[in-house]
Amino acid sequence: MLSRFFSLRRQAVSSSFLAEKLSYVRDASWSYNLVSERGISTAGSERSSGKAFADFSIFKGKAALLMSPVPPTFTKMDSGHQRVDKKGVILLKFIPAIGQRKYDSERKQFFALSATEVGCLISLGPDESCEFFHDPSMKSSLEGQVKKTLTISPLNDGGGYMFNLSVMNAVQKTNERFTLPVTKAEFSVMRTACGFVLPLIMGWDRVIGPHLDRTGHGPPEQSAIKMDPDLEWER
Amino acid sequence: MLSRFFSLRRQAVSSSFLAEKLSYVRDASWSYNLVSERGISTAGSERSSGKAFADFSIFKGKAALLMSPVPPTFTKMDSGHQRVDKKGVILLKFIPAIGQRKYDSERKQFFALSATEVGCLISLGPDESCEFFHDPSMKSSLEGQVKKTLTISPLNDGGGYMFNLSVMNAVQKTNERFTLPVTKAEFSVMRTACGFVLPLIMGWDRVIGPHLDRTGHGPPEQSAIKMDPDLEWER
Amino acid sequence: MLSRFFSLRRQAVSSSFLAEKLSYVRDASWSYNLVSERGISTAGSERSSGKAFADFSIFKGKAALLMSPVPPTFTKMDSGHQRVDKKGVILLKFIPAIGQRKYDSERKQFFALSATEVGCLISLGPDESCEFFHDPSMKSSLEGQVKKTLTISPLNDGGGYMFNLSVMNAVQKTNERFTLPVTKAEFSVMRTACGFVLPLIMGWDRVIGPHLDRTGHGPPEQSAIKMDPDLEWER
Amino acid sequence: MLSRFFSLRRQAVSSSFLAEKLSYVRDASWSYNLVSERGISTAGSERSSGKAFADFSIFKGKAALLMSPVPPTFTKMDSGHQRVDKKGVILLKFIPAIGQRKYDSERKQFFALSATEVGCLISLGPDESCEFFHDPSMKSSLEGQVKKTLTISPLNDGGGYMFNLSVMNAVQKTNERFTLPVTKAEFSVMRTACGFVLPLIMGWDRVIGPHLDRTGHGPPEQSAIKMDPDLEWER
């Protein structure tokens, strides 16, 4: 337990820089927000309806890691119903350090975890590792030019994991590496928060969930009647 | 851990077909949606109020498995209150493969998991198996003609499960079999998503939950006064 | 694993009476609803705003167990804010069997689990037992006349628990006993559903939760400013 | 198991004082509410919109512990979107006992747990300890004058933890200590309730969650299109 004690002391100490770091996070997530705002600049006035940005951010010596969920997108069908168009993800943003508690937002790299990759993350055992490969240009003529590899492997001091991201660019002949130790406590936040959003990035809260108006004999129940076990039985 | 590493490589590779597969899922869930729309075609304009469809889908060599929740249905009582009429389920749809990443939606089979069967699924230990028997014609004159058996048993490589569905039809003299290996990561998604919807298919989010308007001295509190420990104490 | 297999067969078979049982549950919960409606008969027309009843019900040879959550009640303060008046509970209703799949709703007994008792239930290890004592007349002149004892102890076949409720009435010289085996799958439903409602019976979803309107610079944030770490720091 | 049995008996007995204690809690949280209301006295009429207070409270021989969540605060950006300004916390309030079931609310001490500290709390193994250091005057000229140390260490009887808070004031030359045994059942409530609010104090329910209006082709989906894997792919 002593090692754990010390590792927590270290965490406690590092957390004494929290205020300063947070102010930096605001800067970082500000430019981050600008990106996404550009993305939605055509969306009109409804945009001011309280769309929010919130990261879980970890700042370490060599790099920072910002994690945030991305909702799924839905397509409206002629019937007026909707079905998932693009599934949601949990977006990881790695930012390299360029000095003591200074991080270069220009050189950030993204890695988007799918539902199954999130499932792998939150079910990792204490001694287990996992590795994910992404090709941003998949199915395009550029396929294979850029290779991203995320490896999550256990730390020696109980319970934490080392996050390694490598981004190889065959054209630019570059290979960027990000290395970030995640404590057991930080990983527990990831596990809990990812478990909370996993059904939401799958869009299940739209199929069934408190946000549905289910008062009275609503259509959801009507349709459910056709979808319930009878559907199976009637075959 | 090496075996795990490799199994994850395999997963990573297979996930490089994700885009294509998803487009196929859209086709599949499209016809799927049509079914349920027919079911609710009489429900009128409120239908366009954002009813949504979202599956968790797994595509393997011999079959595909699509999983999605089905809300419970409620009956309005003279009092204006509601009680559960039909309990919700988690619907499994098995589709046989008819070629490389081609699946025949016409030959799909459903299996609807009850709350207790979901409880069994999400509490499965690493070495445990479970088996469910359904008779779609239960309590009818056709009872026993069709027998469905779903078996979930552990895979050798750490953490995954094999899903086996057998549908025996004594009249048509057919016995369809679906076999699908589910990785630990995929099962973790099932476990998390099923844990999220379990209270919702039971309808508990209607009895107590954020979607209830609980501002001020609302009736829920009034009724709760009669239902709280005093109810026990006053006996 | 074989024993588990068999126990699941038994469950599967018993589940083939599900339809019949459910129809019975409807009868049971109907009278149940009447009770609670009488309790709220003065609550007026708002009552028709979709208050719902939903049990998790287990029917066994000697008794039935119906479990359902009860929301907390809140008191409005002069400030217009609210604070918890009565904490919510999870209500257990035991009904004795009087024949094959017949249960005598007249002889039901209630046992209301507090948040901490729910915490004990959901954290029970495979070999652990727990025992709760309630005195409905606590702090009244009748204190000690009626003693309720709920004991939950592990079953031999892996993962299930035996629920025992004893209600001793010193005045009527009666001692009613209810004994109910709960399978691992059924207990997993209890654990998951109780975990879902635990924060809600504590009223935490009113302090912080999706149902709060948090758009714009809302008062919740204003007050949070006074309640956040600065409150600690400023001391 | 016997020791556990006895510990639970003790708990059951102590719970027979629940009613009295709760009435006391109401007194305590009343003054507590006054504090926070003063904090928001300028917030205007919207305040009556159902802001609520709810603690999880534990009353022991030497001290009482009240736990409650504090939502994050958001800053509106020119774009109309919002980003987290101050992260939420889980606030611990320690009150010393001054007699049998009497607690001196004037001498209370606060300790605010950050998301990562909550992550540490809920992932504590049965034999693990953790320790947190806070300096309320951090980054001010008074830095180091007051030192708060919260230590959580396992109890000998299975599953509980001892909470120790020490508040050293170098100026007032005082060192207040609070010691509180938390049973396994009580800690299970903490773990479950903290797991429920952790994503909420991070503000993730604002980024993605049922409380978002996601009907139709809403902007959240629009923006998501820019944030989803394509963002990664397009780099």
From TrEMBL, chains A, B, C, D:
Region listing for Disordered, in residue ranges: 213-235
Keyword Transit peptide carried by entry: yes
One Gene Ontology term from the biological process aspect of the record: defense response
UniProt keyword list: Transit peptide
SUPFAM superfamilies in alphabetical order: ssDNA-binding transcriptional regulator domain
Gene Ontology MF annotations: single-stranded DNA binding
InterPro entries, per the entry: ssDNA-bd_transcriptional_reg (IPR009044), Whirly (IPR013742)
Family: Belongs to the Whirly family.
Protein name listed in UniProt: Uncharacterized protein
